[in-house]
C-alpha cells in the first residue's frame, strides 16, 4: 500500500506554532483579558434571557402593526382597546376557573375579539380588493396535536367557531371557502350576510388603499391610510390578527388565531392565521403560540412550529426561542410581526419586530395586564 506524504501537516503545524508564540508573547495581563473576552463572547446569549411574565394562564393579542400613539390616542380610545383585551381575557378566565379546557378558553377569548370592531377579525374584518370580506381562523390542542381551521369564509359570524367545528366534527384540519361556510352552517353555527362585517373605518381604509394604488396619498398598496384619521386608527394600528394561548389546570396547552386578512388583499389570498405551524401551534411540553404580522413571511418561516422545535430539540426557553424566530429570523425574510408564546409552566413572552403589538395576559392569581403603547411593549423586546 502506498503511503501519501503528509505535506499538508507542515504548514498547519507552522501556523499553530505561530499563533501560540504570539499569544505567549503577550504580557500576562493582556492574555488574561483576551481569555476573559473570549469566555464572555461564548457565554453571550443569542436572545432575550427572561420572559415577559411568569405564572400566566392565558394571553391574547389584537394584532401587530403601527403602535398606538399616546399623543394621538384619546382616553376614550385607549380605554376601548384595553377594555377589549380585558374582556377577552375575562371570557377565557371564566372557562379556566371552572376547570374547563384550554381549548374552550382560547375559543372564548377569540370570540370576544371577533365581536369587537376595533380588531381585524370577525366584525372588524378588513376589506378585500373587491370590497368583500374573507376570514380565516385556526385552533389547536396541545395534548394530542389535533387542530381545526377555516380559510376564506364569508358568512360565519365567528370563524373561530368554524375552526373548532372542523377540529371536533371532521377528520380534516382545514376547510376553505364555500365548503367551510356550508360545514359550519350544517353544524348549527351562526351565519351572517357580508354587511355584518362592514364598518366605516375599514371602508375608509380600503378607499385609502385604492387611492394609494393610483399614486395618491397614503403610502403604497395595502399600507393603509395616513395620519391619525379614524381609518388609520382602525387599520394600521390594529391590523393583522387576533389570537389567544392558554394552559389549563391539567397543564394542557391550546392556541387559537383569527383574522380578516389584509386591507385590499387579492380575493382568495390566505395568510398564516389558518395554517398550523405558521400562525398557530400548540404542543404539550413546549409551547402554545399565536402569531400576527406579515403572513407570507410567517408561512415561509414556519414561525410557530419552529418556535416549538427550538424548545424541544435545542432546549431553548420560551423567551429565547420566541426571540430567535420573531426578532432574528423572520425580518431576514422580509417581514415583521409578533407572537404570544406560553410554556406549560406559565412562562410567557410576547416579542415583536413590528413597531407595536396589542396584547395582554392573565396570571394564575387573576391579575390582568394589557399593553398597547410602545413604551409598554417596545419593538425587539
TrEMBL record:
One of its GO terms (biological process) is proteolysis. Residues 1-21 form the signal peptide. GO terms for molecular function: hydrolase activity, acting on carbon-nitrogen (but not peptide) bonds, in linear amides; peptidase activity. Residues 214-234 are annotated as: Disordered. It holds the Pfam family Asparaginase_2. The active site is at 241 (nucleophile). Keywords: Autocatalytic cleavage, Hydrolase, Protease, Signal. InterPro entries: Ntn_hydrolases_N, Peptidase_T2. Substrate binds at residues 269-272, 292-295. Residues 225-234 have a biased composition (Low complexity). The record marks 240-241 as: Cleavage. SUPFAM superfamilies: N-terminal nucleophile aminohydrolases (Ntn hydrolases) (SSF56235). CDD domains: Asparaginase_2. This is Isoaspartyl peptidase/L-asparaginase.
Amino acid at each position: 500500500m502506498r503511503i501519501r506524504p503528509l505535506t499538508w501537516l507542515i504548514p498547519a503545524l507552522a501556523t499553530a506554532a505561530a499563533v501560540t508564540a504570539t499569544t505567549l508573547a503577550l504580557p500576562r495581563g493582556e492574555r488574561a483579558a483576551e481569555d476573559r473576552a473570549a469566555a464572555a463572547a461564548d457565554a453571550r446569549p443569542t436572545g432575550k434571557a427572561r420572559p415577559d411574565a411568569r405564572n400566566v394562564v392565558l394571553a391574547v393579542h389584537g394584532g401587530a402593526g403601527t403602535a398606538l400613539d399616546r399623543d394621538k390616542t384619546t382616553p376614550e380610545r385607549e380605554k376601548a382597546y384595553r377594555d377589549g383585551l380585558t374582556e377577552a381575557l375575562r371570557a377565557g378566565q371564566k372557562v379556566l376557573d371552572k376547570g374547563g379546557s384550554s381549548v374552550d378558553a382560547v375559543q372564548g377569548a377569540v370570540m370576544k375579539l371577533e365581536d369587537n370592531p376595533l380588531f381585524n377579525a370577525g366584525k372588524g374584518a378588513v376589506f378585500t380588493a373587491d370590497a368583500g370580506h374573507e376570514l380565516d381562523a385556526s385552533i389547536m390542542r396541545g395534548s394530542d396535536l389535533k387542530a381545526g381551521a377555516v380559510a376564506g369564509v364569508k358568512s360565519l359570524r365567528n370563524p373561530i367557531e368554524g375552526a373548532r367545528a372542523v377540529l371536533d366534527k371532521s377528520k380534516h384540519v382545514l376547510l376553505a371557502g364555500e365548503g367551510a361556510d356550508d360545514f359550519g352552517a350544517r353544524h348549527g353555527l351562526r351565519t351572517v350576510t357580508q354587511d355584518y362585517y362592514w364598518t366605516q373605518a375599514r371602508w375608509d381604509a380600503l378607499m385609502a388603499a385604492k387611492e394609494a394604488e393610483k399614486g395618491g396619498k397614503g403610502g403604497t398598496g395595502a399600507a393603509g391610510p395616513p395620519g391619525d384619521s379614524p381609518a388609520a386608527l382602525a387599520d394600521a394600528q390594529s391590523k393583522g390578527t387576533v389570537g389567544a394561548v392558554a394552559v389549563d389546570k391539567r397543564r394542557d396547552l391550546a392556541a387559537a388565531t383569527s383574522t380578516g386578512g389584509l386591507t385590499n388583499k387579492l380575493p382568495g389570498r390566505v395568510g398564516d392565521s389558518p395554517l398550523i405551524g405558521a400562525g398557530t401551534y400548540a404542543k404539550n411540553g413546549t409551547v402554545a403560540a399565536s402569531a400576527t404580522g406579515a403572513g407570507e413571511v410567517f408561512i415561509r418561516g414556519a414561525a410557530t412550529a419552529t418556535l416549538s422545535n427550538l424548545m424541544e430539540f435545542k432546549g431553548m426557553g420560551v423567551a429565547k426561542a420566541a426571540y430567535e424566530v420573531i426578532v432574528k429570523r423572520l425580518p431576514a425574510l422580509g417581514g415583521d410581526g409578533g407572537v404570544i408564546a406560553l410554556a406549560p409552566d406559565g412562562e410567557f413572552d410576547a416579542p415583536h419586530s413590528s413597531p407595536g403589538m396589542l396584547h395582554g395576559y392573565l396570571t394564575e392569581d387573576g391579575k390582568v395586564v394589557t399593553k398597547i403603547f410602545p413604551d409598554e411593549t417596545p419593538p425587539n423586546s
